[in-house]
Amino acid sequence: xxxxxxxxxxxxxxxxxxxALLGRRVGAVAGITACGVASWWVLTVPAGTSGxxxxxxxxxxxxxxxxxxxxxxxxxxxxxxxxxxxxxATGADCWHLSAALTYAGAALWAVFAGDWLGLLVGWELMxxxxxxxxxxxxxxxxxxxxxYALVHAIGGALLAAGLAMHVVAQxxxxxxxxxxGIAGGLPALTVAAGVGINxxxxxxHVWLPDTYASPHVGASVVLSAYTTKLAVYAAYRAFPxxxxxxxxxxxxxxxxxxxxxxxxxxxRRLLAYHIQAQVGYILAGIGIGSALGIAGAFAxxxxxxLFKGLLFMVAGLIVIRAGTGKxxxxxxxxxxxxxxxGMFLVAAASITAVPGTNGFISKGMVLDAALxxxxxxxxxxxxxxxxxxIASFCKFGYYASRRGEDRLLADAxxxxxxxxxxxxxxxxxIGLWYAPFFDLLPASGDWSTDPYSQRHLLEKFALFAxxxxxxxxxxxxxxxLEGGIDVDAVRDPLIFEGARTLTVGVxxxxxxxxxxxxGLRRRAFAAATDPxxxxxxxxxxEAGERYREHSRDIxxxxxxxxxxxxxxxxxxxxxxxxxxxxxxxx
Length: 586
Description:
Elements: H1 10-20, H2 24-44, E1 48-50, E2 53-55, E3 58-60, E4 63-65, H3 67-89, H4 94-112, H5 116-135, H6 140-170, H7 186-198, H8 207-212, H9 217-238, H10 244-262, H11 267-288, H12 291-322, H13 338-351, H14 358-372, H15 376-403, H16 414-432, H17 435-440, H18 454-480, H19 488-529, H20 531-537, H21 541-552, H22 564-585
Antiparallel strand pairs: 1-4, 2-3
């Protein structure tokens, strides 16, 4: 009998992806069931590694379960249940369902792989499936999807190159196992660059708001859960002992993402920039490297999947009801949509870390880890990012309820409500009954925290006061901002002009080389066919003429070479000898 512990939950999700092609209803039922089975597997499978596959000289481990993979895999599988339901409830066709399930299955495969090669396979399959998920919407999403595909192809290539250098540096058949992380130096830098692209580090992040604001609203919900979260999971595997540079990169991301979110008036672009900000918190915890920091990072990863997914669900229904993602152009949330208002309030409270929500628990853990480690500048960066988050969701709520067209938006349907309410309940349940959640986190016995300490509550009160004040005072400025100027406004023209200059330069070099080659071949041909003339032209006039006259007295019509009859005779003799040898061999 096959032991279920040796089979990755990705396979059951991929089976559902194949069944989804039979029809939308079949796909929804199969997908919800498969993700539910995967969630049960994640919760019940024992810790450790299972199975071993041979690949060249390497031993590949298809299933490895530890607290980090368990909590990440549970977030992926459990959210897959509601994400598939939301896709179906918002009218996505069977192709969207199949691509989404392939994408989710690839994420589960990567998380539970016990080595870098398995993670890389899942990484690349995720890139393919998510690109298809974007393209399926058509229109502007196709153009955006090409940039998305190019960026993730570069990220995957960098990750693969870094892993190859790591194998060379480490040597041995176990080099691809996670172990103590990636070898230092160039392998670590290359892997960090590949992971950083998927994690939307500053400078390589523009694909995130462009892509997540473009496809089907259900696809945006699915995309919000997996790519960036797998990237931070890979960052933990690469740097399991932490890395302060990574932590400070995360701190700057928290400020940068929240700041650019304040400049947005498109609901999904605002939320996409907040993915970058929340990923910054997660990277900060991983980079700190303490038991509390890593536990806080994975707690926030789990919680971010929930509240960010719920926010994208709300934003998606606003897009459907209003016909636009522009918060000031569509209708308003209000008395006609109490469920949507309630879901937004729970999700916004969670991402801004209101006491009683899951975000309050996990953000407090990361901030405590920075405090315990003495990383005061990092802690201030995270606090500034928190203020920006509070201000931007004050803006979201204000625009969605007060600044839209003078018509109220319809509420969620029953099917849509069924997919949203469990996520909201989970956000509140983790915030109020956090002890069982703590047991799932890495090194649960090596750290402790008191989420509702007086310091935490007073600090949060102060942050909300500053954030709300910042929104009120800055509202005239926010009114004038239309997305802001991101790094792509400078980076893309530089890349284009640089690539064009490089192309022209390469063409000129190849042209010069080709001309030199043509001249060399012409001179060589002349020397081979008429060596007397070539030599004579290089001698003084009188010496050249004497050389030509002397050459005419030598046998052969082309100077020193044999004449035509002699060449034919030699060829006939060679053919005759070859024929005799062939007959004799028989």
